[in-house]
Amino acid sequence: MEDYAPSRYKMLEKIGEGVHGCVFKAIDLQRNKEVAIKKVALKNKFGNIALNTLREIKTLQLCQSEYILGIVDIYPDLTGLSLVLDYQPDTLYSRLKSEVNPLSRQQVRKFALMMFKGITYLHDAGIMHRDIKPANLLISDKDVLKIADFGLARLHFPDEEGRFYSPQVSTRWYRAPEILWGSQKYGTGVDMWAAGCVVAEMLRGVPLFAGTTDIEQLAIIIRTLGTPRLNQWPELTSLPDYSKIRFPNSVGMHWDNLFPSCTHAVEINLVSNLVIYNPKNRLKAKEVSSNIKLEPCRRA
């Protein structure tokens, strides 16, 4: 956080704005390289230290992976802190919005594999991302996918039974059902559900579950996957919001009908092993990323 920092960077243009700050494109004059500068608040609206900012900084500093966005520098400004990040010209979200160049099967596999390698790295480091979605998956000029935006990231302690996590995480369309039912004792399975939704979106071109409220989100999930069976997910009835609303019984849809224009059985099989009600039954990131061709790796 040296004094030289502001003069080192030449600001170019604003390229994004999110819940946790604005992002600008700039030139790192010292390295003659494009960077992204994310301006974040050091304190929240109540005057307390902004935990999201601290989590993002710490996570970015800890992670050294080809598939995790790299942090170059940090310096203070008038409103808080500026995080200098590796500049990425594209996002998976913008790629999915392109009607001119839809993703090929090879691109779907490549981006999926990079995403799972990045998630494997995070989970091995004991970190839950908690907001995996296309807009947070950046793509470099060499088509390398990198996971970004760690404002909701948390350390995960699987051996600590009494640890609680906020259910107010993840973007609704990619939010796991245990969180939608109010669970505060979830784990890395929430990232795997979200990743499964991302793979499905790459195959379909549109989101798999697109609810406008949490209740509608659950209703769409149940209509699509069928009513969850208690013998397959016995913990469901103990979730805080389980008894607050009842949904009509549903037998669900066949996976092939969810991907009418897709004949990629391997990828559809992968989605079906991730978008599963019981988080214990979802594939682990390492199980997917260790299989380079993304062949089905269903556990017995």
Question: How would you explain this protein's 3D organization?
Answer:
- The protein is of the alpha+beta class.
- The chain folds into 2 domains: 5-86, Phosphorylase Kinase, domain 1 (2-Layer Sandwich), CATH 3.30.200.20; 90-289, Orthogonal Bundle (Transferase(Phosphotransferase), domain 1).
- Helix content is 30%, strand content 17%.
- It is built from 10 helices and 10 strands.
- Strands 1-2-3-5-4 form a 5-stranded antiparallel beta sheet. The protein has a 3-stranded antiparallel beta sheet with strand order 6-8-9. It has a two-stranded antiparallel ribbon with strand order 7-10.
- Helix 4 (105-124) runs antiparallel to helix 6 and helix 6 packs antiparallel against helix 9.
CATH superfamily of the largest domain: Transferase(Phosphotransferase) domain 1
What is the CATH architecture descriptor of the largest domain?
Orthogonal Bundle
Number of separate domains: 2
Could you tell me the mean pLDDT?
88
- Major sheet size, sense and barrel closure: 5 strands, antiparallel
Order of helices and strands: HEEEHEEEHHEEEEHHHHHH
Query: How many strand segments?
Result: 10
Global geometry: globular
Question: Quick one: CATH class of the largest domain?
Answer: Mainly Alpha
The spatial strand order of the largest sheet comes to: 1-2-3-5-4
Number of H- or I-type helical stretches = 10
* CATH fold category name of the largest domain: Transferase(Phosphotransferase), domain 1
* End-to-end gap: 51 Å
